Amino acid sequence: MICSRQVPEKSGKSRENPVTTGQTLAALTCWNVLVRAGFRERPRQDSNLRTRLRRPLLYPLSYEGGLRKVSRAVPAAAEPVPNRLRAPSHARVPLAAVIRDQLTAALASALRGAGVDPPAEIPLEQPARREHGDWSSTVALAVAKRAGRKPRDLAEDLAAALRADLPAHVTAVELAGPGFVNFRLAPTWLHDVLRTVVAGGVDGGYAGAYIAEWAAEMPDDVDPLEWGRQRAVDDHRATLARMRIHFDTWFSERTMVASGAIARTLDDLRAAGVVYEGDGATWLRATDTEDDKDRVLVRSNGEVTYLLPDIAYHRDKYGRGFDRLIDVWGADHHGYVPRLRFALQALGHPADSFTVCIIQLVQLLRDGREVRLSKRTGEIITVDEMLDEIGADAARLTYLLQSVDSRQAFDLTLAAAQKNENPVFYVQYANARIHSLTRVAAEAGIVARPLEDVDLGPLTHERELDVLRSLAELPEVVDLAARELAPHKVTTWVRELAGAFHGFYHDCRVMGEGIDPATTQARMWLVEASRVGLAIGLDLLGVSAPETM
Questions:
Q1: Alpha-carbon distances, residue 470 vs 37, 477, 485, 529 (angstroms)
Q2: By the 8 A CB rule, do 273 and 279 touch?
Q3: What is the dihedral of CA 448, 452, 455, 460, to 10 degrees?
Q4: Residue 407 is assigned to a structural domain of this protein
Q5: CB 152 within 8 A of CB 178
Q6: Does the first or last residue of the chain, that is N or C, have fewer Cβ atoms within 10 Å of its Cβ?
Q7: Is residue 83 part of a domain?
Q8: CATH of the domain at 185
Q9: How confident is the model at residue 341 (pLDDT cuts 50, 70, 90)?
Q10: Three-state SS for 264?
């Protein structure tokens, strides 16, 4: 059984695709739980590190176990967000991009001030004609209908708010046409361009903090690229370990190149009649399946696209004894599924032996407000920072609260809160209460008799029966979660059991004045059964079961 994170090709051009912190951890956490729930008998998991020797840069993991450590989006919030990293001053962030982000943030703030939620993307461009200003936004036109406002009226409100607190370098904010908001900038921002160009020099380039740290660590007698790749893998493994995610095997694509596996795969696809030559390139007849067009395997310059090595790699998994492959991909890669399945079928593998779980993006929130991240300004939240803030338990369980094929909202503030509204706290607190009852009983000298000697007849209160009904569902829930590849079903059950136990704890005293010994004995065993159930559920989810909180 394999868990994979794929990066597709489009129109014959290979590309890197940013992977969000939330999306990838959700995928990895999902798979980790499925292994715990029902697939431990499978040979092993794999992890493949794609390394492109022709590229003089470190390439983050893009296949199985593929985790980038940043989550990125176009910024639209003016408020500073804690725990962000900013690009160092010597990093080459284009000043035009910085100006764009400042204006975008200012527009977002003005929209909020006008009682309008900013869109995910705020349109902003440089007008073709200088007399229209340096920058122009049509955001008022874009959101007016949703806001129930006339575009020009909304644009007037935005312009007024912006004039009251002009962004840096802005000298004027003007209203134009049906709802354009135009910005005029002072020459000072171009003066900063001069300073940046001179400071960067001819041999500048990116010199982020981690580059300096790695350079200080690197021995003099090693190949920088090989050492850097291994250093990146080590960092990746360390982060995965913090998330309690383990891969038995790490796989390098270079082994397939060296062994000729990619070339043999292409030959076998030709023999199967699903490959043809055209326009100097080699194509897969993907339209023989539900794909909308044929796909390039080898470009006219002889370079392979992502698709061919992906086919060879999945074929290699079958060759190593795996009889079912499960990949976990982002929603934007759903179109990649038919062409890969088609190729694997052409190579003789049953269609139902290859399954792809499509996951949705995860929206990061703080206090209910979206955390805006930017690749242009270098504002990011790394996985390690997130774990520093909320811990692995909160990260794992929160990602598994709902089906991974539905869009998730992850509130960092709630995940760290010590209150019942936090599902992680609510579940773990139930376990802590169980151990508290056990300690109190021991201090009172109450010893549980062997279960076979205890009459369970007193367990008739509705709260007690709720706990027992929940415990009775566990085997079916685990089986269903494994068969449907739906780990969130285990999370739902754990929350329901915790809720049932909290109700029992509130309404049914276990010991003390007025509680007869027979009832105490029966309830002590109910407490123990609850402990076992929670321990099983939390273990399947990879979440700890603390005895005190």
A1: 18, 10, 21, 11
A2: no
A3: 90
A4: no
A5: yes
A6: C
A7: no
A8: 3.30.1360.70
A9: very high
A10: helix
**H/E element holding 184?**
strand 180-185
Structure tokens belonging to residue 496: 């329901």
Helix, strand, coil in percent for the chain, rounding step 5: 50, 15, 40
pLDDT at 23: 53
Residue that finishes a domain, picked among 366, 391, 407: 366
Query: E strands of 344-457, at which residues?
Result: 354-359, 362-366, 369-370, 408-411
Split at pLDDT 50, 70, 90, the class of 94 is: low
> Does residue 359 share a domain with residue 224?
yes
pLDDT tens-digit map of 378-394: 567 888 989 999 999 99
Angle at 341 between CA 339 and CA 345, to 5 degrees: 115
Instruction: Look at the chain and report how many structural domains it folds into.
Output: 3
Structure tokens at 451: 């279960």
pLDDT, one tens digit per residue, over 258-271 is 999 999 999 999 99
Q: How far apart are CA 450 and CA 504, in angstroms?
A: 22
Short-list 254, 258, 305, CA closest to 8: 305
pLDDT band at residue 20 using 50, 70 and 90 as cut-offs = very low
Identity of the residue numbered 328: V
As a whole number of angstroms, the distance between CA 304 and CA 160 comes to: 54
Region of residue 293 (phi > 0: left; psi between -120 and 50: alpha; otherwise: beta)? beta
Give the domain extent around 59: 9-74+217-267+306-366
Residues in the chain: 549
